[in-house]
């Protein structure tokens, strides 16, 4: 039996790092909030995917207003977020059905490609886990007690989202106590002893965290719209 | 006595990863080869900096033709490269004067900011070494014997160029036998037992290695030109 495809979009940003009052995910690119671009990317991949949007409680009204104003038609269920990313994902997991494949994706990664989403779901269907990674282009240094040291960059990967998992496995993982080492969903699942399957991400799939990222995302979305 | 400022620009690219016949560094952005943008960045920082350009032997004629065609007026000395980056830098070091501060910079990083170059020279003047780094935005995984594992990304930095060193120290470092672990100049100097001083790089300072990077660099250079 085919599993139900779910995507939990986590949008917890408070705009702190961007030094603006608007939460990052509500900033408009090409006349549309970043978060709408992100939801649309998943709908482009599969028109029937079930979308769960996790938002800070105090942003839910503003989001619903934005949806009205933009006549945003992508169906999604809204869930109130928790104190941090871990608890937000946990809240999202409470509403998923049984026998699901669940993608967890950063709300501020609007440039994920259809191919990346597809690769993650395909591999997670086979292996139970799949996350998109890319090779670092730059050299990498590790901070040490005495300063820092060069490390072999071919042994490292940069991790993106969506991170896709078997639904039951993911729920079990998020049943664990929170640890500050949980920086993404893979690290939570890994703490169960599960192996994480790595698949190819796409370079454009940046996480918008600084003004530079925002400029870059604007340019990339503009050029994508011109091509299509 | 103030040390002489030198920048060795290493341009060894064969265009392999870009799947084009034109060497990466000769590809034009806004009507000008990438390498000219790079040399200009150093001249903007200091009009009197001595520029040494290390080029593969079989590209020197083509480069000189390009300089004529573009009436390129930034003074620089050309040195023939070696079999790999290590030997190319080594060749460049043979022509530097005594009592110098030497920056080594990738020819395909045209977007280095004046501020980044300045920070590196200032700190290297004090400490003998300085390299620009930025924080990774994404989670990082390390490849292991059995698969991969999540690591604490706050312990890692992504390394850029220019990497600036006391000239005598750098020459001594490049007197060592080549090791495949030498991925940048810092790793070569570090093998002497020297500590590497880390300074803030700039996010735009990307190394152009893929078609995506090229598109990105075009956009960034275009928007910079519009502002200035």
Q: What's the number of helices of chain A?
A: 7
Assembly status: homodimer
Strand content of chain A: 15-25%
- Summarize the amount of helix of chain A as a percent range: 25-40%
Low-confidence segments of chain A, given as residue ranges, are none
Give the rounded overall mean pLDDT of chain A.
93
How does the overall form of chain A come out from the CA principal axes? Answer: globular
Q: Would you identify the CATH H-level superfamily of chain A?
A: Spore Coat Polysaccharide Biosynthesis Protein SpsA, Chain A
As for the number of domains of chain A, it is 1
Distance linking N and C termini of chain A: 35 Å
Q: Give the second-level CATH assignment, the architecture of chain A.
A: Alpha-Beta Complex
Question: In CATH, what is the class of chain A?
Answer: Alpha Beta
- Please state the CA-atom Rg of chain A, rounded to the nearest Å: 17 Å
Q: Give the topology string of chain A: H per helix, E per strand.
A: EEEHEHEHEHEEEEEHHEH
